[in-house]
Write a structure and sequence with these properties.
Elements: E1 5-13, E2 19-28, E3 33-37, H1 44-51, E4 59-64, E5 67-68, H2 73-78, E6 80-83, H3 95-104, H4 112-121, H5 137-149, E7 155-159, H6 167-182, E8 186-191, H7 194-200, E9 203-208, E10 211-217, H8 218-225, E11 227-234, E12 251-252, E13 258-264, H9 272-281, E14 286-293, H10 296-306
Parallel strand pairs: 3-8, 3-9, 6-7, 7-8
Antiparallel strand pairs: 1-2, 1-4, 4-5, 9-10, 11-13, 11-14, 12-13
Helix pairs in contact: 3-5
C-alpha cells in the first residue's frame, strides 16, 4: 500500500538565505500516529506547513493521498486537517458558527449533527453560543481542533497541540487522538512533550537543523537505542569508587550509599556478571538492586546532541 503522505528531497530556503529544510524525505503510513520531535528551530513547523500548502518548498515533491500537493493542491488539502499552535480568529464570532464556517470553506454541505458531535467530543457544546473572546486559553485550543475536524479530514496535523495547556486538557487531547486513530485517521504530531510521543506514537522521527536524523517504530527505537541503569544499594557507605572498578563507569551517589551502572541493552554482553564478581573482590557488598529503562526523552536528547 502506498504511503498516505510521501515527501521526497524536500528543501526550503527563505529569502534571507536561511535553509529551514535540507533534503527531507519521509513516508507516513495510513492510520498511524506519527510523532515529529525536535528542538526549537529544528524545522518541525516548516515541514508540516509545507506539506499542508502554507509554505512553498524550494525543491522536492509532496504527495498526499496520491495527489501532488503543489499541482493538485485543492484535492490534497481537502484530506488534511491542521491544528496550528495559534490561529487568528474573529473574537466576536460564536463558537458553533466558526466551526460550521470552517466546514463550508471546503465546499461541503452543512451538517449540524456532525458539528454538534465534534463540539461535544471536545467539551465545547456548552460553549457553542459563546463568543470566541469569552473562551479560556484551553478552550480556544479545543476550538482549533474542532475547526480542523469540521470537514472530516483523513489526515490530522497537530502542531504542539498541548503547549502551555493544563494537564487535564493534555489528557483529553490524548484520548481524542486515540478515538481518531480508531476511526482510521492518520495523525502527525509535533511536540516538545516527550511523554506525548511515548504515550501515543506508533513511529517517531527526530528532526534537527532541518534534517531528519532518524525514523523508527517507537518500540524498536527504545529497544535499539535504549539503555538500562542498574542501581545497587550498598550495605556500607563508600567514600569513592575503587580504581579497580574504573572501567565500569560507576556513578557513586552523593551519600555514598548507592552505585549506578549504565549498560547497553543491545550489547552482546551487559558486563553485569563481571561487575558483581569484581565488586565482591573489592569487598563491596550490596543489599538490594533495581534496574530502570531509559525513556524516549533520554534517547531524544542523545540523538540531538549527536546531530
Amino acid at each position: 500500500m502506498a504511503p498516505i503522505i510521501s515527501v521526497q528531497s524536500l528543501e526550503k530556503t527563505y529569502d534571507d538565505g536561511f535553509q529551514a529544510l535540507k533534503t527531507v524525505s519521509l513516508d507516513i503510513e495510513e492510520g498511524e500516529v506519527f510523532a515529529l520531535l525536535g528542538p526549537n528551530g529544528a524545522g518541525k513547523t516548516t515541514l508540516i506547513s509545507t506539506i499542508c500548502g502554507l509554505v512553498r518548498p524550494t525543491a522536492g515533491t509532496i504527495t498526499v493521498g496520491g495527489h501532488d500537493a503543489q499541482t493538485d493542491y485543492r484535492a490534497a488539502r481537502k484530506l488534511i486537517g491542521l491544528v496550528p499552535q495559534e490561529m487568528p480568529t474573529a473574537p466576536f464570532e460564536k463558537v458553533i458558527d466558526t466551526v460550521a464556517f470552517s466546514r463550508g470553506l471546503f465546499g461541503l454541505p452543512a451538517n449540524p449533527g456532525l458539528i454538534e458531535q465534534i463540539l461535544k467530543d471536545l467539551t465545547l457544546w456548552d460553549k457553542r453560543d459563546n463568543t470566541i473572546m469569552a473562551l479560556s486559553g484551553g478552550m480556544k485550543r479545543r476550538l482549533l481542533v474542532a475547526k480542523a475536524l469540521a470537514h472530516e479530514p483523513t489526515i490530522l496535523f497537530l502542531d504542539e497541540p498541548t503547549a502551555g495547556v493544563d494537564v487535564e486538557l493534555r489528557h483529553d487531547m490524548w484520548r481524542l487522538v486515540e478515538q481518531l486513530k480508531e476511526r482510521g485517521v492518520t495523525i502527525i504530531l509535533t511536540t516538545h512533550y516527550i511523554e506525548e510521543a511515548e504515550e501515543m506514537a506508533d513511529r517517531v522521527a527526530v528532526i534537527n537543523k532541518g534534517e531528519i536524523i532518524l525514523v523508527e517504530n517507537k518500540s524498536d527505537l527504545m529497544q535499539k537505542l535504549g539503555r538500562k541503569e542498574m542501581t545497587l544499594a550498598l550495605q556500607e557507605t563508600l567514600v569513592a569508587v575503587p580504581e579497580t572498578l574504573a572501567t565500569y563507569g560507576l556513578v557513586l551517589s552523593e551519600d555514598g550509599r548507592a552505585l549506578t551502572y549504565t549498560y547497553d541493552t543491545q550489547g552482546e554482553r551487559t558486563g553485569i556478571t563481571a561487575l558483581l564478581t569484581d565488586l565482591a573482590k573489592s569487598g563491596i557488598r550490596f543489599q538490594d538492586l533495581h534496574t530502570t529503562q531509559s525513556s524516549l526523552e533520554d534517547i531524544f536528547v542523545d540523538l540531538v546532541k549527536k546531530g
